[in-house]
Automatic annotation (TrEMBL):
Keywords: Methyltransferase, Transferase. It comes from Stenomitos frigidus AS-A4. The keyword Repeat does not apply. The lineage of its organism: Bacteria, Bacillati, Cyanobacteriota, Cyanophyceae, Leptolyngbyales. This is Class I SAM-dependent methyltransferase. InterPro entries: CFA/CMAS (IPR050723), SAM-dependent_MTases_sf (IPR029063). One of its GO terms (biological process) is methylation.
Length: 377
């Protein structure tokens, strides 16, 4: 009879199950092969759906709810379809120009309809916080930013850098709360920057207050003359391939005694994860870092606090986006998507349905959002 103490030794020889980081070379390669097979199966379903296969949403959700508990709990190594997902890559941001074209520079009218576009809450392409009792998407996004304010301990008069500021929603909302806060927004997306430039000319927008500076550029290349009291980054680190270099850059921009707040999609599994479908169609080179990745990169910045936000929050956000996306078809179908609209619609429906259901699986305890508060080491 095999003793319990001998089981971990045996498991390192077994492919597929358990932590891939501790496998023998043979078991590791077998696990990588199985991951490629899983990815091939997922891509076959995705491509069939994109090309017109009619599959009810309930069937897709049922398939995901059946498979994800097995993968999260027992076979996490199968959630990394490519070798680069598991390790840092050479550049801070991988495929950033391609990402802008595929994802963030889509027709603004379509994105406004899907994400919401209100007086203070501009389109925001990240999780809304629902667990505080939000009744709709707009309120959930306010609650999420209020939580950022609390955890980053933003004070009136702070000079803040928003690394990857999207359409300026977070700066605009925080500027509305603090009359003496200054913001610099860094963004590579030309279309998002154009949206903010229009707001900077709108007297009703807090981006026009003179306290917001927009920098269109890449963290790989950007230089600032000043250092910041606080730095926040919401959602961007899913597109960052090298945390070590990114943290070195952010540390160089942070004042002594300053703080960095990072909000990312994360997985409470031993390794990072990704999806062949999202890599091809939605987030080129996107990866979801495991929950321990940020604290484990502590050369220039160190984590002093962290929080896990249950995946139900992002599930509700993505579900709301899907409903809004479906409801807007008649008004957005004539816009220029660079491809046949029917194909674009099915790509994005599958994306919203797939991710929304994955966040819901296992009651949100494995795939959710991580928040991290960091300071200089």
């Amino acid at each position: 009879m095999t003793s319990v103490s001998a089981f971990p030794t045996i498991r390192k020889h077994l492919p597929i199950t358990g932590d891939i980081n501790f496998k023998t070379p043979l078991a590791y390669q077998a696990t990588r092969g199985a991951a490629r097979a899983v990815n091939t199966a997922q891509m076959a379903l995705a491509e069939a759906y994109i090309n017109g296969l009619e599959v009810p949403d309930s069937v897709v959700r049922s398939m995901i709810h059946t498979s994800m508990p097995l993968l999260f709990q027992h076979c996490p190594g199968l959630l990394a379809p490519y070798q680069w997902v598991l390790n840092e890559t050479d550049h801070i941001a991988e495929g950033s120009r391609e990402l802008m074209k595929v994802q963030y520079d889509r027709p603004q009218a379509m994105l406004n309809q899907m994400l919401g576009d209100w007086e203070v809450i501009y389109p925001k392409y990240s999780m809304g916080l629902w667990e505080r009792g939000a009744v709709d998407l707009e309120e959930s996004q306010k609650h999420m930013i209020d939580q950022v304010i609390e955890r980053l301990e933003i004070k009136d008069g702070d000079n803040i850098l928003d690394f990857g500021c999207g359409w300026g929603c977070v700066p605009n909302y925080i500027l509305s709360k603090f009359p003496n806060v200054r913001f610099t927004g860094l963004n590579l997306s030309h279309e998002q920057c154009e949206y903010m430039r229009q707001k900077m000319q709108d007297p009703k927008s807090y981006l026009s207050s003179g306290r917001f500076t927009l920098c269109e550029g890449d963290l790989n290349e950007v230089q600032f003359e000043e250092k910041f009291d606080k730095i926040l980054s919401i959602g961007v680190f899913c597109h960052v391939g090298n945390m070590t270099n990114a943290f070195q850059k952010l540390a160089s921009l942070l004042k002594g005694g300053g703080r960095v707040f990072i909000h990312i999609i994360t997985a409470r599994i031993p390794n990072n994860m990704s999806s062949g479908f999202t890599h091809k169609y939605i987030f080129p080179h996107g990866r979801y870092w495991n929950y321990d990745a940020v604290p484990n990169h502590n050369r220039d910045l160190k984590t002093i606090n962290r929080w896990y936000l249950n995946g139900s929050n992002y599930h509700k956000t993505l579900t709301d986006w899907l409903h809004r996306f479906d409801a807007s078809q008649e008004t957005v179908k004539h816009l220029d998507y660079g491809m046949d609209y029917a194909k674009f619609r099915r790509i994005w429906r599958f994306y919203l349905l797939l991710l929304g259901t994955i966040f819901e699986s296992c009651e949100g305890e494995y795939n959710g959002n991580g928040q991290y508060l960091l300071v200089h080491t």
